[in-house]
Fold this sequence. Notes:
Helices cover 45% and strands 13% of the residues. It is an alpha/beta fold.
Amino acid sequence: MNALAQLRHRLAGLDRLVVAFSGGVDSALLARVSHEVLGQRSLAVTAVSESLAPSERDDCRRFAQAWGMRWLEVGTDELARPEYVRNGADRCYHCKSELMDRLQPVADAEGATIALGVNVDDLDDHRPGQVAARERGAVFPLVDAGFTKAMVRETARDLGIEAWDKPAAACLASRIPYGTPVTLGTLTSVAKAEQALRALGFRQIRVRHYGDLARLELPGDELVDAVEQRKAVVEAVKEAGYRYVTLDLEGFRSGNLNDGVVP
C-alpha cells in the first residue's frame, strides 16, 4: 500500500475530521484528501490572527472554493498569551495551544478529531507546537502514512493541487529571534516587508527582524536579483518600517533561528 492509499485508509478510520488548514502544501494535501474520503464529514478550519500573512488567508479561501470543501475561519489571539509574547524557545507551544483551544469547540460540535498537516521531516526539527497539539488529542495523518516533505509535494502535484510547489511559509513570529518580544507592530512590519518583496518577484523570502534592521534571506539563485534590484528592495523594506536593510549571503534557511535550540 503506497503512502496515499495509507493516508486514505487512515482518514476513513477517523470518521469525522477538523483539519487545521494554514494554506501550505502539507495542510492543503491533508484537507484535499480528507474532503475526498470523508466529504461533508470533513471541515477545513483556518486560524486567522496577526501571525498569519494576509496572502495566506486569501490562498486558503481560494483553495477551499476551488475544491468545494467545507471551510471555516476562526480567530486566534496568540498575543493575549504572555508566554507567546515573551518569545522563548517554547513560543510555538503556546501558539499551538491557542490554536487547539479555538479548534476544540468546533471539533466538539462536529463530533470530530482534530488533524494537523505535520509530515515525517517535521519531527526532526525543534517543534514544541507538536507537543501541545498531541497533548490535546490532535492526530498527524501524514506522519501515520509515512509522508516526507518531498512525498507531500509529489502527491499534491499528482492530485492537481496548485500549492504543490508553494514555498514554505511559517508563521510571521518565526522571523523574530527568541527573546525578542512578539508585538503587533513587529508582525505587521514583517508581513508588509515580505508582501512588498513578493511583489518584486521574490517567491521564497524571510525577513528576519532585528529591531530597526531587517535581514533578508533569499534562495542562493535570487541573491543576484536582489542586488540588481537593490534600490527597489531597500525602498520596499524601509517602507515597512525598517531603517537598515541587509542581505544574508548564506541565503534562505528555513528554521535557522532554531540553531542551537535543543528540542
